[in-house]
Design a protein that fits this description.
The structure is a homodimer of 485-residue chains.
Chain A lengths: L16 H12 L6 E7 L10 E2 L3 H9 L5 H9 L5 H8 L6 E4 L5 E2 L6 E6 H6 L1 H24 L4 E4 L8 H14 L3 E2 L2 H7 L9 H6 L3 H11 L5 E3 L5 H13 L12 E4 L4 H14 L6 E5 L4 H9 L6 E4 L1 H4 L10 E9 L2 E4 L16 E8 L5 E8 L10 E4 L7 E4 L2 E5 L2 E5 L2 E2 L6 H13 L15 E4 L1 H16 L1
Parallel strand pairs in A: 6-7, 6-11, 8-9, 9-10, 10-11, 15-21
Antiparallel strand pairs in A: 1-5, 1-12, 2-4, 3-5, 3-19, 12-13, 14-15, 14-18, 16-17, 19-20
Helix pairs in contact in A: 2-6, 3-4, 6-7, 6-13, 7-15, 10-11, 11-12
């Protein structure tokens, strides 16, 4: 486990204020013993993509393990003069007691299926809403966006360069973490290397070049100090008139350690397709065919696809602001909804109805199965079921569109795997957090189970997320019940 | 000063890796004594707006005051096998020694003018680039976006509700801080209240309503517990058929404390214009004309303007995801550029040339004056000058467009104020950090000095940022020098 100090930061008060007023309200109303079930899910894949990559679970675990309230917190809340002393006492002795199920990080996930399910005392299960959403929404957004960029780069390395444009220091650090899960090869963020072992990389800034009396002197000095990892930024003055000629001179400099090879050049402005071709030719002509070309400059998946379509001889991409802010679609709309309560020992499903049918929630305590073809090993569909259900893979299984249930299909010759794993058992961590490398490998191997049609950028195939017949019937009866009110 | 613990977090390693490799390079090349000058500025106002509101200085101060390297940091860097032991020794004894000038938080600022100027040992002045940019870029983005939303709301309160969709926990906390500077009245983020005194506010979630056997019971319970601040969420089932009638019943409930008044209702979905009108009428008819109407649901400045244009009787807006991510334009492109070096006791200006004239930097150690009309007290123009210049307001002053210098104008009857203030003197803090309320008041009073034409949403007036004749001549000569190379 690559443990960072997220849990050691005291973030218990990073909660919407209404979580606290509701908690106090439940407490005051004698409902602190009430058990409630919540699902975290999303309704829309960012950028109209085919799938989302779940990320952020490790930080949620660390947050939950350290959830507590200090005397300062209690005093602050008391100063609001709306919280009862007995509630503040409850917070002072707070101990997290919920059950938590979650989809492991790196798993491709789809709209409407629970990524996290929490059950426990309603005060607790409700209170953690803000941080759960904030963490999953952020990291899943960046992992998903990065994966688009990595797919566009078709095997060339993508290095995350976004720290300076991230929305605060966490967005930089955990954005780098999520980008790695999504497939980035490295990051510019040193802290992400120190904390998570994500390789930190970088070249030089224009200021390095400007600080010397000449570009050539700047290059030679850098080559002398970093003979094994010398990547030169060639666009401070003029790429083809100055940067590339000086890079070639540096590569041929006799005073450098024997065996010195110029590892690469970076172009950070201008027409990257034209310049990369010109630079490649000049480098090849100078016998530097092993010198790599990296480009950067407000890149995203669209620009990278264009560059590759134009046969630009680019070896790696530094992608900054548009990755780290998910510029094209920066809101990941995960929500956290009540789905059941326990009353007198019975589990009572709850639904949120809406005139917008897509906003009607799936009631009850649920789980999710992913059905894989035994032949292709590809994922065929996900099925959301009630918690006491199983899927018998020895029989044909009918899936259907939950909104248009006459759209059906029958699956055969498949096997089913549960998607959510148990993370906390009544507040006790029962899940071994995987390492970053394990998460990244899991993400890559899970992505291999997706049909290529799901990975298209425009109008990808819509993956099937079905409900079990039993869950559909329950939902249908609750909707009818509410519409009769 | 509202001190938070930002400086106490150890974020020294949140730096682009190339800052460290360059620092080691300067050190190894015997340039650790070299003094360099850097400017932080931006080139484009987000969303095509007329101005940016500078924010984030307090966190920069706290970061710089606590900049140091632990043994863990040193060990980590050593493990990279590219840093010299003497450089690591330098880091171990690191002491921040730079001069820093900055624009106070809340000040409206414009493209190309320095918001921060740093000078000192090049290793230090370069190293802090990542955090300086990250903090200013983030908070200025959110303050500026919020100010657009607040302007659209035309005097109605805007409450920042974005935590759950923020890009990590810092984006929530410091986003709430920046939103307050930009004019938000309150935040949903409890931590922002605890740390910065920004009023935390909130109503209830749908889950509160769902958890009770009926909406009416949920409302009455809430009213009983929070008789003085009872705002009811009325859209869990159906606003006009259920939510509003139950809110009215609650307002008239006899068992509540004497003098109970329903403070407000919140509508979180549906046609907010239609529903707010219907709700207003129903509430007024029930004698509840003092009951306020709050709306939320993916709001931004455009939707709010439409709602107001349609005379929607809305008293306040809860604005979440589109504010906290600055969805319409989530990248604030502040940069940090070398502008001068000291050599043999002389200050040598440095320029970054580019085929794109807008990307050519302003050379030299500079300051910025804002010129105000003595009659209207409005800001007329900013002038960037070299550091040893003054502006004599007793004489007519000619300003011009730095890109098209034949576009000129002569100002008379004005007074000039310097925009940047000294924050650190050779690493010693010499600036008294204002309180959040002082910053917010400063922002509001500075905004009053801007012509209304600058505050338009579409095609605002372009504010004049001129160069002094001396600076323009210097820039021109450096460009000519470079183009002759």
């Amino acid at each position: 486990m690559d443990k960072d100090d997220f849990g050691l930061r005291h973030l218990s008060m990073l909660s919407d204020f209404y979580e606290l007023t509701m908690a106090n309200g439940y407490f005051e109303n004698g409902m602190d013993g009430q058990t409630a079930y919540f699902d975290m899910f999303f309704r829309k894949v960012p950028d109209g993509g085919g799938f989302v990559i779940a990320a952020g679970l490790q930080q949620i675990v660390e947050y939950l393990q350290n959830l507590s309230f200090t005397e300062d917190d209690i005093d602050f809340l008391r100063s609001k003069a709306i919280f009862s002393e007995s509630f503040l006492e409850y917070l002072r002795d707070f101990e997290f007691k919920c059950d938590v199920w979650a989809v492991p990080e790196g798993t491709p996930v789809f709209p409407y299926e629970p990524l996290i399910t929490v059950n426990g005392p309603v005060i607790q299960a409700q209170f953690i809403e803000t941080m759960l959403l904030l963490i999953i929404n952020h990291q899943s957004l960046i992992a998903t966006k990065t994966n688009r960029i990595v797919r566009a780069a078709s095997g060339r390395a993508v290095v995350e360069f976004g720290s300076r444009r991230a929305h605060g220091s966490d967005a930089s650090l955990y954005g780098a973490r999520a980008a790695f899960i999504g497939g980035a090869a490295a990051t510019s963020c040193t802290l992400a290397d120190q904390k998570f072992g994500i390789p930190a990389a970088g070249t030089m800034a224009h200021s390095w070049v400007q600080l010397f009396d000449s570009e050539l002197e700047a290059f030679k000095t850098y080559a002398r100090i970093y003979p094994k990892s010398c990547v030169l930024l060639v666009d401070t003055y003029n790429v083809m008139k100055s940067g590339i000629p000086n890079a070639i001179k540096t590569a041929n400099e006799e005073l450098l350690p024997k065996g010195f090879r110029l590892k690469g050049i970076r172009i950070d402005s201008g027409d990257l397709s034209y310049l990369s071709k010109q630079a490649r030719k000049a480098l090849d002509d100078a016998g530097l065919s092993d010198c790599k070309i990296m480009v950067s400059s407000s890149l995203d998946e669209d620009i990278i696809r264009e560059l590759i379509l134009q046969d630009s001889p680019i070896d790696s991409f530094g992608v900054g602001e548009r990755l780290i802010t998910a510029k094209s679609d920066p809101v990941f709309g995960g929500v956290y909804k009540l789905c059941a309560v326990e009353k007198d020992g019975h589990l009572l499903p709850r639904i949120k109805v809406s005139n917008n049918v897509e906003k009607i929630t799936n009631p009850g305590f649920k789980k999710v199965f992913r059905l894989y073809s035994n032949d292709s090993r590809k994922a065929l569909a996900d099925v959301i079921t009630l918690f006491d259900e199983a899927i018998d893979a020895s029989e044909p299984y009918e899936i259907f569109d939950p909104l248009f249930p006459w759209k059906k299909s029958t699956l055969e010759n498949f096997h089913a795997k549960e998607l959510l794993v148990r993370i906390f058992d009544k507040g006790r961590l029962v899940y071994e957090l995987p390492s970053m490398d394990e998460i990244r490998t899991h993400a890559a191997s899970m992505a291999d189970t997706l049909w290529p049609e799901l990975k298209r950028f425009e109008n990808p195939h819509q993956y099937y997320v079905s409900l079990s017949r039993k869950l559909w019937n329950l939902k249908d009866s609750l909707i009818r019940e509410h519409s009769q009110k």
